[in-house]
Please model this.
Amino acid sequence: MSNAAIALGLMTAALLAAFVLSLRFRGAQSLEQWSVGNRGFGSALIFVLLAGEIYTTFTFLGGSGWAYARGAPAYYIIGYAAVAYTASYWLLPAIWRRATAWRVISQPEYFARAFNSTWFGTVVAGVGCFALIPYLVLQLKGLGILVSETSYGLISYEAAIWIGTVATVVYVILSGVRGSAFTAALKDALVLLTVVGLGIALPITLHGGITPMFDTLIAQRPEFFVFPEKGLSGTWYVSTMLMTVFGFYMWPHTFGSVFTARSEDAFRRNAVLMPLYQLALLFVFFIGFAAISAVPGLEGAEIDLALLRVTGQTYGPWVLGLVGAAGLLTALVPGSLIMMTTATILSRLITSLHPASAEREVQIARLAVPLVAAVSLIFVFSRDQTLVTLLLFAYAIVTQLFPSILLSLCCPQRANALAAFAGIVMGVGTVVWTTFARVSLPSLLPSMPSAVTDVNIGVLALLMNVFVLGVLTVLLQRPRIPTDHTG
Model:
C-alpha cells in the first residue's frame, strides 16, 4: 500500500465517521431545530460546540506556521482566547437571556430586537456575512492544504478544495447543528491526541527534548523569542489581542451557538473550564519550533505547511494520515457551522419578505448552503494569503459589532439604530479601505513612533466606531420604551 493510500484512508475514515454522526440528526422540520437544536444543549455540548468553532484549521495549521515563521508574535493566539473565555462568564448569559425571551435564532434578529429596528438587523446580517466569507475561505484553504499534503501530492490543491467543499456542503445539508456538535467531540479528541503527541514527540525526536530545542533556537536565533521593535512589536501584540478579544463572540456562528443552550449556567461553567483548552496551543507552537530545522525555507503562504511537512518527513504516512484526519475535522466542523449560519441568515431575510412555513424556511436554508460555498470558492482561488492573515482581516470586520452589542446590554434604553449603523459603517469602512488600498499606519503617519504606527488597524477602526457611536447616541438620544425586560 502506498504512502498516499494509507494517509488518505485514515482521512476518509474520519470523514465517514462525521457523516455517520450527521445522519443521526437528518430531517430537521424547522429552522430552529436545524440551526439551534431547539435550544436544548447542556454544558457538555456547549463546550464541544464552542471549541469546535474556535479551534479551526487556523489553530491547527496557522498557529504552527506562525510559530515557525514569526516566533514571539504568535503568542497572541494563546492570550486572546483565554481573556475572551473569562469575559464570557458575564457576556454570554446576558445575551442568552434576551435571545431566549425573544425566541431569536440568528445574530441579525437579535440586533433587530435589541435596537428595535428591522433594517438595522439587515445591516448586521450584511456585515456578518461579509466577515464570514474570509473565515470560510480560511477553512476551505486549510482543507485544500490538508488533503493535498496528506495525499503526498496525488490530489492537487485545487482538486482537494473542490472535494472538501462538496463534502462540507453535503454534511451541512444533512446534519444541522446537532451533527456539528457531536462531530466536534470527535474532532477535539483527535486534535488533542495528535497535537499533544506531536508537540512532545517532535522536539524529542529532532532535538532530544523540549528544553534542548529551545536552547538550540535561542543560540541560533536569539531574537526569535523577542518582539521586534517595529512591525509585529509589543504594541501590535497588545492591540491585536484586544481586537480579537472584542470580536471573539461577535462571529455570527459563535453568537448563534449561544442560542442553543438549555440554561445560562452552561456558559458560566464553561468560562471556568475552557481557558484550560488553550494549553493545547503550547504543543502547536512546539511543533512549529521543531519544524524550523527539519523543514527550513518555508516562506509566505507555505509556512502553513510546516506541521504537515515535518510530520510526514519524520514519522511517515500513518502518523501524517492521523494528523490529516484531525485537521480535516478542524475544517469540517467550523466550516459547516459557518455555512449553516450564513444560510440561516439568508433564509430569514428571504422569508421576512415572503413569509413561509417552518418546513419551507429550513428548505430555503439548505438550498442556500451551496450558494454560500460557491461565493467562498471564488475568493479561495483569487488570493494567496496565509491563514492568519485571512483570520485577522475577518476579525477586524466582525469586531465592529462589539460596541453596539455592549451598548444594547449596558444601556438598552439608549440603543439607537442610526448611531450604531454609523459607527459600524465607519469601522468597517476603515478596515476595508486600508486593506484593499494597501494603506498602513506607518505610511499614513511616517513621523510617528512605532508605538503608534504598529497598532492593529482593526483597533483604530474600533476606536473610530466607538467615537461615532458615542457622539450620535448623545445627539440622537430620545426616550423610548426598551423592549428588554429580561434583566
Summary: The mean pLDDT is 84. The chain is about 75% helix and 0% strand. The CA atoms of residues 355 and 453 lie 50 Å apart.
